[in-house]
Amino acid sequence: MGGSGGLLEGKWALVTGSSRGIGRATAEAFAAERASVIITCEPQQKDDLEQVAEVCRKNGAADVKLVYADLTDPKETKKLGEEALKLSGGCVNVLVNNAGVYYPMSLDEGPNKGQGPLDGDPDDWDKQTHINLMAPMRLTRMLLPAMKDAGEGHVVNIASIEALYPYPSAPAYSATKWGLRGWSKALFAALKSDNIKVLTVNPAQVSTPMTWSRPDAEYLPDKMIQPSEIAEAIVMTFRLNPNAFLEEITLQTAEPPKIEK
User: Fold this and answer.
1) What is the pLDDT of residue 1?
2) DSSP code string of 158-169
3) CB under 8 A, 24+ apart: contacts of 173-181
4) Taxonomically, which superkingdom (predicted)?
């Protein structure tokens, strides 16, 4: 893969949560379009991220940089933004806010096992909110001024089908994704005049480690969306002419999942 003349040649892209799933597929797709990619994850996923970096290089990325950050920590989120600006020479052209988490990751994690008002752990909700909502908001705030000065930019926020149809088994997670979708759609309206495109992506059940780890997961493998299909949908926005602003993409599955009541 690779070659010259890619859609993202000459652009720097930061993709959070890029060691696996949607983030990995997006980084690899951007690399095939000749982007310079900054890929990031938590330090404990270092081996996975190095594998992604190797694929990105083979795909034709103009450059690949790796940064490790724990996005539950606002200080580390700030450092990630600062490092991305430094690595990109002062302007990240494309920001993909993909990193997300679902707490708890199993039903065996102590007495507070759920997401709801009767069984959830507010400390888990805090961490989940930092990763799913506040980190995207903070990174966007840090990277937008340079995009505005450059006269163009792209922000892609990976929300969820649960930002449209909240699951009764996952109210805390749904709340973070509703917040991200609201933030994203407000950004779309606020930034059009600055020639900054903001895309909200609402995937249904995607075949990723996070989906499979959820205690309420009862999904059929052959009915799930593949991460590469989400990446293809994101790349589509770069195929549009500069005056076409794609606001939102919702990807449904053929059959709805079984949902805990």
Assistant:
1) 42
2) E--GGGTS--TT
3) 173/102, 173/103, 173/115, 173/128, 173/132, 175/129, 176/100, 176/128, 176/129, 176/132, 176/133, 177/132, 179/129, 179/132, 179/133, 180/97, 180/132, 180/133, 180/136, 181/157
4) Eukaryota
3-class secondary-structure state, position 95: strand
Tokens of 148: 């505005």
H or E element in which residue 15 lies: strand 12-15
Six token digits for residue 37: 């990619």
Per-residue pLDDT band for 3 (boundaries 50, 70, 90) equals very low
> Mean pLDDT across the stretch 239-252?
94
Q: Which domains does the chain have, with CATH numbers?
A: 12-251 (3.40.50.720)
Q: Could you give the strand order of the β-sheet that contains 63-68, starting from the edge strand earlier in sequence?
A: 63-68, 36-41, 12-15, 94-97, 153-158, 196-203, 248-251
In this predicted structure, the answer to whether residue 2 has a pLDDT above a threshold of 80 is no
Question: Which structure tokens are listed for 227?
Answer: 């991460």
Judged by DSSP in three states, 29 sits in helix
Alpha helices in 192-220 (DSSP H): 209-213
| Distance of alpha carbon 130 from the chain centroid | 13
Give the pLDDT mean for 119-142.
94
